[in-house]
Amino acid sequence: MQQQGPSGAPPAVIELRGITRVYGRGEAEVRALDGIDLTIRAGEFVAIMGPSGSGKSTAMNVIGCLDSPTAGEYLFNGVDVARLDKDQRALIRRHYLGFVFQGYNLLPRTPALENVELPLIYKGVGAAERRARALAALEQVGLANRGHHDPSELSGGQQQRVAIARALAGSPEVLLADEPTGNLDTHRSAEIMELLARLRAETGLTIVMVTHEEDMAAYADRLIWMVDGRIADDRPTQRGARDAG
Amino acid sequence: MLGETIRLAVRAIWRNALRSFLTVLGVVIGVAAVIAMVTVGQGSSAQVTRDVEKLGTNVLMIRPGQVAMGPRSSSGTARAFDLGDVERLIREVPVIETASAAEQSQMSAVSGNLNHRTTVLGAGNAYLDATDWEIALGRRFVTGEERGGRAVCLLGETVRQELFGNTNPVGEAIRLKSISCEVIGVLVAKGASSFGSNQDDIVMIPVRTFQRRIAGSSNVNMIYVAVRDGASSDLAKVEIEGVLREMRRIGAGEEDDFTVMDMKQLASMLTGITNVLTGLLAAVAAVSLLVGGIGIMNIMLVSVTERTHEIGIRLAVGAQARQVLQQFLVEAIVLSLMGGLMGIALGLGLAMLAAQIMTIPFTPDPMVVLGAFAFSALVGVVFGYFPARRAAQMDPIEALRHQ
């Protein structure tokens, strides 16, 4: 489905051109993003780092179509989505994106399996197929036997894996992970990162992850460093350089 | 998708079962009150019609004065009838089977040391014929007793119970004011009338006895007329009016100074009153439905705030505003429909109980039940819309941040 670009590189999934996001007006104006240019190609695993207030979360929100930029172009698979309205952005999220958050964001008092089914409900998938796909997604994250457990009965690492299964269930093109290991200890964090890396390898998923931990960023193959709403540095990680070489 | 939403709504409601129940209590009470009121009202209307039919559709009532559609309003200025008028009517109007004066007054009936306040009716055997009232014990009046105004009486079942218990009172004496009256019979029990007044709480004496010894005047203020079988009561009415106008020397073009009422008129008058009362009570009850609706809106607003984070998650995975709107709207509607169903059950139960106590027919009206159900759905839509819209308009980033 994905064609090779002219240079032989995979095609761009996400292209930001001069993306600016301004909060407030006049004196109180804050430029959270200040003219970002960024291209992410299919199958890339990109980590975004930077000090707090550097705009990395805002960048994630814009890339995730949760927010609209004040100015600039955002091409998703070549289509400008920067000017879409709320409901159109919801459709982009529904059909192309999957989210993993620091706080897991599972529906409380709702079994894991039903949490994983949630995006499929909005995709209009019928009950039987929904159940099957949700089970398959849980299996991918190694929790096939935990489907009937409520989130409160699962450990943090398990909850995050349920969240990853939920993101995967809708078969997205891009997985957006906002500090996915922020609430986990080192051991669990490593498990989650290995899971993400494996899923990327198996499915060719594109992953964009915000983190403030170097160790986690090391699982990506490209690291973007943000400062004051701009991209200060953009280079391959060791792993990325090794894979390329 | 709608089935999914309904399932979700039921689950959300069930999760907070107690709170949901308290929330819909207003709707439950409102719907129950409306249904109970209307059902009891319709039952008593049916009972009035039935009672009047039992009285006989061939019975006419004549009163002095113009009584439009209310009891004893303007009879003050009109001349009363007398017993001569009653006899002349029987003589001159062939379709009249029988006619009787019927005078009444409230007073105490005393027997030994027992005392019971009751209605004393002065009337004759003709009244018993006109109203189809049988004797349970003893006998009716004899002609001599009626003509001579003798001190004899028939007891209603209630008066008999109060003064004599289950013993046979025939031959005993009771005192009404200063007269001592011999009990010659007991009337068959009739039960409560449409308005709950006890028809058996009565002592009947000959009308002449009533006039001489109780009223102290020869006036007659009410005449019961029974029309011959097969004769039209409308026709009888016209004939009676003609004879009465002549008897009372009313010139052409002058208004009648009396009223001839048939039972159809009486029935429609009584059911008219019942319907007005029912409507009024139902309107009051409907106000509590409104209050119930506000209760639902209140709790839905709380629920939307509590579930902000959930809304954020749903938006993040691709829910559109109208889907979130639909979810909360359906929840409000399901909630108020549940209240409506409980209210219908409770209301019908109450109406059934009331019907038994008041001995009126229990006639639930499917249209009323359906209407109440539809109305509770409407309450859900109206009062659920505002909270649902608030949920739908949330910003996904803000909502996700809300914990």
Descriptive overview:
The complex is a heterodimer of chains A (245) and B (403). Chain A is α/β, with parallel strands linked by helices. Chain A has one domain: P-loop containing nucleotide triphosphate hydrolases (Rossmann fold), CATH 3.40.50.300. Helix content of chain A is 36%, strand content 27%. Chain A has eight helices and ten strands. In chain A, the strands form two sheets. Chain A has a six-stranded mixed sheet with strand order 6-7-8-3-9-10, sandwiched between helices. A four-stranded antiparallel sheet of chain A has the order 2-1-4-5, covered by helices on one side. In chain A, helix 4 (127-140) crosses helix 5 (156-169). The radius of gyration of chain A is 18 Å and the shape is globular. The mean pLDDT of chain A is 92. Chain B is an alpha+beta fold and 403 residues long. Chain B folds into two domains: 2-50 and 269-401, no CATH class; 79-256, no CATH class. A six-stranded mixed beta barrel of chain B has the order 2-3-8-5-7-6. The two termini of chain B are 28 Å apart. The chains are: A alpha/beta (245), B alpha+beta (403). The interface between A and B is medium-sized, with 28 and 21 residues.
Relevant terms:
heterodimer, A: 245 residues, Rossmann fold, four-stranded antiparallel β-sheet, 8 helices, 27% strand, globular, B: alpha+beta, 2 domains, 13 helices
Strand content of chain A: 25-35%
* Overall tally of domains of chain A: 1
Measure the end-to-end span of chain B. Answer: 28 Å
Give the radius of gyration of chain B: 32 Å
CA radius of gyration of chain A: 18 Å
Q: How large is the count of helical segments of chain A? A: 8
Protein name (chain B): FtsX-like permease family protein
Subcellular location (chain B): Cell membrane
GO molecular function, one term (chain B): transmembrane transporter activity
Transmembrane segments (chain B): 21-40, 276-304, 332-355, 367-386
List the helices and strands and how they pair.
The complex is a heterodimer of chains A (245) and B (403).
Chain A: E1 12-23, E2 30-41, E3 45-49, H1 56-63, E4 71-76, E5 79-80, H2 86-96, E6 97-101, H3 112-123, H4 127-140, H5 156-169, E7 174-178, H6 186-203, E8 206-210, H7 214-217, E9 222-227, E10 230-236, H8 238-244
Parallel strand pairs in A: 3-8, 3-9, 6-7, 7-8
Antiparallel strand pairs in A: 1-2, 1-4, 4-5, 9-10
Helix pairs in contact in A: 3-4, 3-5, 4-5, 5-6
Chain B: H1 2-15, H2 17-55, E1 59-64, H3 83-92, E2 96-111, E3 114-123, H4 125-130, E4 135-138, H5 143-148, E5 152-155, H6 157-164, E6 173-176, E7 179-187, E8 202-205, H7 207-215, E9 223-227, H8 233-247, E10 258-262, H9 263-306, H10 308-316, H11 321-357, H12 366-392, H13 396-401
Parallel strand pairs in B: 3-8, 5-7
Antiparallel strand pairs in B: 1-9, 1-10, 2-3, 2-6, 2-9, 4-7, 5-8, 6-7
Helix pairs in contact in B: 1-11, 2-9, 2-11, 2-12, 9-11, 9-12, 11-12
